[in-house]
Amino acid sequence: MSSVIRTTILSAALIAAAVTSPAQIAVRGDMVYTMAGTPIRDGVVLVRDGKIERVGPAAQLAIPANYKSYRAKVVTPGLIDAHTVIGLTGYLNQPQDQDQVERSAPMQPELRAVDAFDPAERLIEWVRSFGVTTLHTGHGPGILVSGQTMIIKTDAKTAEEALVPAAMVAATLGDGARDTRTPGSRAKAIALLRAELIKAQEYRAKAEKAEKGKEAPRDIRTEAFVRVLKGELPLLVTVNRANDIASAIRLGKEFGLKLVLDGVAEVQLAMEQIQAAGYPVIIHPTMARPGGETENLTMEDAAKLRAAGIPFALQSGFEGYVPKTRVVLFEAAVAAANGLTFEQALASVTLDAAKLLGIDKRVGSIETGKDADLAMYDGDPFEYASHCVGVLINGKLASSSVH
Amino acid sequence: MKTRLLSILAGVTSLAMAQTPPVAFTGARLISMAGAEIPNGVLVVEKGRIVAVGPADSVTIPTNARRVDAAGKVIMPGLIDSHSHVGGADGGDGSSPIQPDVRVLDSINVRASSIQRAQAGGVTVANVMPGSGHLSSGQTLYIKLRDGKTVDDLLITLGDGRIAGGLKMANGTNPRRAAPFPGTRAKAAALVREQFIKAQEYRDKIRAANGDATKMPPRDLRMETLVEVLDGKRVVQHHTHRHDDILTVLRLQKEFGFKVVLHHTSDAWMVAEEIAKAKVPVSLIVIDSPGGKLETKDSTLENGAALEKAGVVVGFHTDDGVTDSRFFLRAAAISVRAGMSREKALYGLTMANAKILELDSRIGSLEKGKDADFILLSGDPLSTYTKVIETWIDGVRVFNRNNPKDRVYAVGGVGASHDDGDMHSDEWEK
């Protein structure tokens, strides 16, 4: 094939691609918050084949003629919700769309989020329309060990598209772990967990020593706990009261677990212990309702974590009633009004969340080579009256609905 | 004990302060809800009332006034919440579906932390409602969120000596239960009609007695309340979500001629024209995401805009604890995001609710002669970054963000949501 013909075919292919679903996109923003360096005034993000190609000031980065262009006042990385349950919980809040907790046994780490996730759930479309592009979702709080979580983009058509199909194992300590059968108390919950983890230690030791062909029968529940012991699956512990935070840390240290503390309403009463333990925190939604175990939470908890140098991210969490989900954009906005700077609040739902979840090589900032997940706003994204006007996921327009 | 005693004394002192020299706030942007916003305004309050308000160059500040420099701040009327559950009030029990004899008045805890948090959100007046699990769960109470020792300190007394309040009613799925509660929507309407017809007959007997005590029917607390409703002396505050349930309320209202306010109204956007035609106001809840309750599945943030367009009077409410009183301003702001005008959104936090509670001659705007209920804000009322700095009721400051004890109620923390009877105190300032 002559090079002339080859070039012609290539150009035709490019034109066809541009007409149907443009592989090349340029997004220009009056302000582009890359989360990698200072924000760029009048910036341009070039997108090619689903990845960020280049980013820089418009004065230095010309938009090629064949790029489809979008323009917005503010451009940010696509937002990351560091902990939610949507896709397993649905907006109707009826038994058929609530799959976040299975109550037949107090500990079921073998339950996989990918086997329950509904990518067509309306709540996912809802949060996407505010700029949320990545979810850490799955089994919820409300039982001692509810199951696994996963990480997936908000435009996924199937659970197979998950970035991380098994991300963490979700656990709950405190009143939330109580069951009508067992555990009926705080100490019993810890006793049950220790017994399972010791069983998993023994299972692991046996499996490592077993001769080929003489392996013990498989036990998928214990296998999941072995993955927790190995640190392959962090234990995501939803915990609010200071004494329960201490219990979580005690358990984490005994078994050398990778722990992520979640909720943590009494963070201000346990700050030193958390700092010393070195565990990251996915803090409760800024506007979470105080009451019961969460009665002492504050709107400034994110700011306090930041000041203490503890890695943290914001979450939408689990909502039992109305609204059936929160939106991390709104929670970051109120955190920005309560002690975090604008960029710190934005980081808590972008780059800091990506780092905490271990996905920062792909998402969380606008940098060459990362996934082209972008959110566009018609003003300060944290202002109540601003709108999200467009969302790109993997370089494709995923939302243009404006609420 | 000592702390408690000091708190009470401080309360008495601040009440007394309302009697002493006038206070003049200068330099603030005034959003009076009675005319255009005033960039550099003066507000003068004395003896619990507003005595002067207007642009700096048009108001003469009394020489004995204590001047407060409010430059850079915004002053607007105290927020009025037309549907709240602060104070942990309850209503009727499981004995019957219609209990207009039951009063919220007899159940409210004035020391509840929810009242302190509502003050921190800028709320000065709230319609405290019993629940929606009955066709009528009882009489509501319009309270001023003063720092009080008993509920009597929070009451609003009307010109005729009655205590201000409405009647809670509800339809849709919440009141559906086993008999004697209704099992269907039509049964719910039938039970309500039956009681209102009884009330008409009771009223006829009273009228026929023409003041002759021997001819009066025996006293019936339920009927007496319903007669107040029929006579237009007590407004029905009606929980309703679905479009057909909204129309059922309007149908009953037309049959019996009572005054009614539609509450929550998730499907309002579907029947906005019908609501406008009935000239009935709406007390709207603003939930920032969908779902959670089947009956509200079609709720939208655009409800405020749709009702405004149809010409309906729209007030907002928190339904506290469904939404948090500290985010009441946010309800208006995100309605603006969804198409409502700034003017009507602010109206919905103030004057619209004053009308809904029929207290608009006393509260809802900054006008000479009205109650000195107002808030100082750090910036624009519809901005995320704005904080309520002070809340004043009847010329008394009940919340001051610069007081660390009050600040805890604003941002949360140990004690902010714990009901141990802790009261606001001005001790820190002394």
Secondary structure topology:
The complex is a heterodimer of chains A (403) and B (430).
Chain A: H1 3-20, E1 24-32, E2 40-48, E3 51-57, E4 68-77, E5 79-81, H2 122-128, E6 132-138, E7 145-153, E8 169-172, H3 186-209, H4 220-229, E9 235-239, H5 242-255, E10 259-263, H6 271-277, E11 281-283, H7 301-308, E12 312-314, H8 328-336, H9 342-347, H10 351-357, E13 374-377, E14 388-393, E15 396-399
Parallel strand pairs in A: 1-4, 5-6, 8-9, 9-10, 10-11, 11-12
Antiparallel strand pairs in A: 1-2, 2-3, 4-13, 6-7, 7-8, 13-14, 14-15
Helix pairs in contact in A: 3-4, 3-5
Chain B: H1 2-17, E1 23-30, E2 38-46, E3 49-55, E4 66-69, E5 74-77, E6 79-84, H2 113-120, E7 123-128, E8 138-139, E9 141-144, E10 167-170, H3 185-209, H4 221-230, E11 236-240, H5 243-256, E12 260-264, H6 272-277, E13 282-285, H7 303-310, E14 314-317, H8 328-337, H9 342-349, H10 351-356, E15 374-377, E16 388-393, E17 396-400, H11 404-411
Parallel strand pairs in B: 1-4, 1-5, 6-7, 10-11, 11-12, 12-13, 13-14
Antiparallel strand pairs in B: 1-2, 2-3, 5-15, 7-9, 8-10, 15-16, 16-17
